[in-house]
């Protein structure tokens, strides 16, 4: 299967509020959605076609890591 698009990039952080604030205030992203689960919470940010998911909670090491997910459909 060929990769045609990246659906989103997920960033894991210990300080979700500061990370989201940085991307919104300094980089011009818009807060689109929130997800809260028992052991983690995430915020979806968007700027144009770029989507970032900022996640914190259990398993967040505090250092930046990213996961890219390919969209199953092409444009």
Task: Describe what this molecule looks like in 3D.
The protein has one helix spanning 16-25, and strands at 6-12, 30-36, 40-47, 50-57, 66-70. It is mainly beta and 75 residues long. The chain has one helix and five strands; from the N terminus they run E-H-E-E-E-E. The chain has a five-stranded mixed β-sheet, covered by helices on one side. Residues 61-75 have low confidence and may be disordered. The protein is globular, with a radius of gyration of 13 Å. A hairpin with a 3-residue loop joins strand 2 and strand 3. Helix content is 13%, strand content 47%.
Structure keywords:
mainly beta, disordered C terminus, globular, five-stranded mixed sheet, 75 residues, 1 helix, 5 strands
Strand order of the largest sheet: 2-3-4-1-5
Which radius of gyration do the C-alpha atoms yield? 13 Å
- Broad shape: globular
List the uncertain runs. Answer: 61-75
Structural class from helices and strands? mainly beta
DSSP summary, beta strand count: 5
Whole-number mean pLDDT: 82
Query: Describe the biggest sheet?
Result: 5 strands, mixed
Write the layout of secondary structure elements.
Layout: E1 6-12, H1 16-25, E2 30-36, E3 40-47, E4 50-57, E5 66-70
What can be said about this structure in brief?
The chain is mostly beta strands and 75 residues long. It has one helix and five strands, in the order E-H-E-E-E-E.
